[in-house]
Amino acid sequence: MARELITGNGAAGYVLAQAGEANRSARGCCCGAYPITPQTEIIEYLRGFEFAKGRVVPVESEHSAMAVCIGASLGGARAFTASSANGLAYMAENVFAAGYFRLPIVMIAVNRTLGPPWNIWADQGDSLALRDAAWVQFYVESHQELVDTILMAFRIAEDSRVMLPVMVCMDGFIVSHTQMVVDLPEQQQVDAYLPTCSIPHRLNVDRPATVGGLAWPRETEHMRHEIQQAMERVPAVLEEARGEFEQVFGRRPHGVMSAEYVDEAETVVVASNTIARTVRNVIEQRRVGGEAIGLVSAKLFRPFPRDAIRAALHDKRRVAVLDRNHSPGSGGIFWQEIAATLQGCDVEVLQDYVVGLGGGDVTPDVVNRIIDDLVKRETSAEPVWEEVTA
Predict the structure, then answer these.
(1) Could you tell me the CA-to-CA distances from 237 to 156, 225, 326 in Å, in that order?
(2) Is residue 134 within a helix (H) or strand (E), and if so which, with residue range?
(3) Which pairs with CB-CB distance under 8 Å and at least 24 residues apart come from 185-190?
(4) Which residue, 249, 283, 300, sits at the end of a domain?
(5) CA 85 from centroid of its chain's CA atoms
(6) pLDDT, position 390
(7) What residue ranges of the chain have pLDDT lower than 50?
(8) What is the pLDDT of residue 386?
(9) Are 170 and 108 in contact (CB under 8 A)?
(10) Same domain, 152 and 60
(11) DSSP summary character for residue 359
């Protein structure tokens, strides 16, 4: 394994290339490629990689980039791409199609604010707008977690018990363009970790079939139920992928989430992506002063890990959810999911804080203000817009 100072985009491009190359003894790989800030360097890296059996196909739009991945995956190849913001929105029709076709495509979503007005900085509104597509969704907080999760994404997507596409989401610029020291896998390690891609319903000239034809209501209902069952199997498949990852690479990545200092805490903060790193530093400082505060770093969003969330939070006095996203007329999206999950539990205060929209800085001062506000609350209130009200 090589240790290297590298950007998030560079790391993502590297690992996608290694994963594609690992399928060279089967039906190879394919990337539908269209650049968009802040994802562009991923596509540039892949365009420069010499695949033994694979192609990067430049197209005229994000919609076509996913169409290429759909075609390649239907042909049995290992398929992947990357996009951001309005590119994801333009791709949306084919994002839904890929999920309903049960194709194990892996996509890196470099989170960027949807426009207009145009904003190139990070929030999660782009990928979370696709939360009802049949895609597994991961949110990562560091460069190393990005690398490890991309590899596990292929294992999960291509597992016959799942056979669904996977989206790995990272903060634009905060991760995509900054450098950190990362352990990058060698090709032989990736070869050992990733089985060759086998798609049972791939097109085959010896068995002609129609894809995407008309389905009657009962057939559609049955197919949606099968997708739900596949989603429900994801946590168990992820646990297997983590164990096998440890055998090959010598470390065990986080699973559906990480819970830190939670067992003895009365107050818990839930965060995702890079905000979780800032929250962790603040909590560690406040614990030195004797405060019983814990952190849940949310990683798996679809399927939503209700059992794990409930086990971590069911008896806590106060819980804050920090959302770098917003569903107009409702509030933060992670908060909505957690509120539904904790129905009937003993949490006294479950408070949503909308922070960092449009790439606003979520500094230690912001996190400290949120915790100070939370510990004074006796009841929950409407979502708090921290940057607006502070």
Answers:
(1) 6, 19, 30
(2) none
(3) 185/1, 185/15, 185/18, 185/147, 185/151, 185/249, 186/1, 186/2, 187/18, 187/21, 187/22, 189/1, 189/248, 189/249, 190/15, 190/18, 190/19, 190/21, 190/22, 190/151
(4) 249
(5) 14
(6) 46
(7) 390
(8) 79
(9) yes
(10) yes
(11) G
* Residue 47 near residue 58 (C-beta atoms within 8 A): yes
- The residue among 387, 312, 376, 300 whose CA lies nearest residue 342 is 312
What was the pLDDT predicted at 1?
A: 75
- Per the structure, the count of domains in the chain is 2
Amino acid at 270: V
Look up residue 181 and give its two tokens: 């020291």
Between the two ends of the chain, the Cα-to-Cα distance in Å is 46
> CB within 8 A of 36, min separation 6: which ones?
62, 83, 84, 85, 86, 87
Answering whether pTM is above 0.85, one says: yes
* DSSP per-residue string spanning 51-113: -SSEEEEE-SSHHHHHHHHHHHHHTT-EEEEEE-HHHHHHHHHHHHHHHHTT---EEEEEE--
Instruction: Report how far residue 369's alpha carbon sits from residue 138's, in angstroms, rounded to the nearest whole number.
Output: 28
User: Strands 384-385, 318-323: parallel, antiparallel or unpaired by DSSP?
Assistant: unpaired
Q: Residue 167: what pLDDT?
A: 98
Query: What is the span of the domain harbouring residue 16?
Result: 2-249
Q: Is 212 exposed, middle or buried (0-12, 13-18, 19+ CB in 10 A)?
A: exposed
Q: What local confidence, expressed as pLDDT, does residue 97 receive?
A: 98
The distance from CA 284 to its chain's CA centroid, rounded to whole angstroms, is: 26
289 contacts: CB under 8 Å, gap ≥ 6:
none
Q: Per residue in 329-342, is it b (16+ CB within 10 Å) or e — as a string?
A: eebbbbbbbbbebb
CATH code (residue 278): 3.40.50.920
Please check whether residue 355 is in contact with residue 362, taking contact to mean a CB–CB distance below 8 angstroms.
yes
pLDDT of residue 293: 97
Distance between CA atoms of 114 and 118, rounded to whole angstroms?
7
> What amino acid occupies position 101?
F
